[in-house]
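Exercise 7b. Backbone tokens:
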């Protein structure tokens, strides 16, 4: 390594100060410094290069997480790398969203679940991790169609342990049907258990009878170890109505 001496120091006095012994000591000190790699405008440091995808010429893609609290629990419909059972805080699951595209029609809308804020409550479901760039694009395109009547997306903390104080995953994407009728014309809102159950018994859409959605959700939640009172009460009321219909028809 050659030692560069700035021109103002190239005087006889300065040159005498930089003896061979001085240069040797400085050389040793310079060689002991940590090596830092600088990048050119077209290159990239080691840190950048680690996250660089030479095939796409883009930065490495971070995983995305999607939280399912309804039919996504038992039917994802897209490729994923990991599925975690857990919950989000501050929300509860309610059958307040009208469905005119899956479990009902515009004339007889079905009812599906959405989330509403509820301090101190939690909503159990599953979170899906999607790492691959192509899988992410396919999943988002698919979900934007499937959840098109859900007008809002939120990014929430997801927990797997009820005793944990920190989230297992932050920024999990959640589709929510808001009560804002201006942006969500299919919102039906709250009603009595009996009234909601009657609607569910009557409704049927391209994805099948509304009651099947309810029963599948009840089963899926029980498999997760979750007893959702709202879901259980509705399922029991629907079964009661169906049982009465069978008795009167015989």
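Sequence design result:
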């Amino acid at each position: 390594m050659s030692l560069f001496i700035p021109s103002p120091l190239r005087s006889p006095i300065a040159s005498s100060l930089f003896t061979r012994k001085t240069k040797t000591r400085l050389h040793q000190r310079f060689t002991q410094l940590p090596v830092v790699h600088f990048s050119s405008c077209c290159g990239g440091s080691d840190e950048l290069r680690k996250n660089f995808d030479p095939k796409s010429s883009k930065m490495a893609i971070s995983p995305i997480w999607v939280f399912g609290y309804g039919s996504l629990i038992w039917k994802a419909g897209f490729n994923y790398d990991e599925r975690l059972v857990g919950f989000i805080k501050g929300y509860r699951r309610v059958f307040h969203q009208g469905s005119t595209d899956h479990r009902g029609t515009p004339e007889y809308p079905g009812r599906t679940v959405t989330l509403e804020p509820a301090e101190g409550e939690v909503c159990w479901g599953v979170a899906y991790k999607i790492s691959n760039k192509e899988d992410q694009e396919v999943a988002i395109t698919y979900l934007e169609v499937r959840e098109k009547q859900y007008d809002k997306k939120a990014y929430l903390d997801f927990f797997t342990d009820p005793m944990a104080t920190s989230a297992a995953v932050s920024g999990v994407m959640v589709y929510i049907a808001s009560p804002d009728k201006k942006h969500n014309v299919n919102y039906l809102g709250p009603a009595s258990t009996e009234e909601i159950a009657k609607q569910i018994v009557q409704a049927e859409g391209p994805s099948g009878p509304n009651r099947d959605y309810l029963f599948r959700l009840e089963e899926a939640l029980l498999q997760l170890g979750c007893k959702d009172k709202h879901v259980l009460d509705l399922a029991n009321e629907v079964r009661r109505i169906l049982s009465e219909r069978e008795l009167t028809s015989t």
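Instructor comment: The beta strands are 52-53, 58-59, 64-68, 82-99, 110-130, 152-158, 169-176, 204-205, 208-209. The helical segments are 12-17, 20-32, 46-50, 133-146, 193-202, 210-223, 229-249.
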